[in-house]
Amino acid sequence: MHRGSCLCGAISFEVEGDLGMADACHCQQCRKWTGHFLASVDVPRKMVTINGQADLNWYHSSGKVRRGFCAKCGSSIFFDPTDQQKHNWLAIALGAFDTTTQIQLHKHIFVAEKGDYYSIADGLPQNPY
């Protein structure tokens, strides 16, 4: 069982089972949403339990995606494709986990949009989009 929460604890979540592969998204939207880039892991929806739904707000950043954050403290937590028939997963920000994840990043995505103030030098694959 993996557990996590927002900064103030109003929203918490549990993930039943092992976590999959994590990635780091460097697109402009993720950078603006998190203040840097989004390191997250995709988890099948059926494995996730979210508590504190009253404080969970969603921002529809496009017609295809909504982003979940805490209305009290502003923590960026969830990245959710709106086409749930096609995408039966929910991405969870790695920084929101309270327990160890026991996973590593496996790739960087949208590096064509990355900020100019940092380098990616970890040797992982870098996808332009």
TrEMBL record:
Transmembrane segments: none annotated. The keyword Chloroplast does not apply. Residues 2-119 form the CENP-V/GFA domain. PROSITE patterns: CENP_V_GFA. Pfam families: GFA (PF04828). InterPro entries: CENP-V/GFA, Mss4-like_sf. Belongs to the Gfa family. This is GFA family protein. It comes from Echinimonas agarilytica.
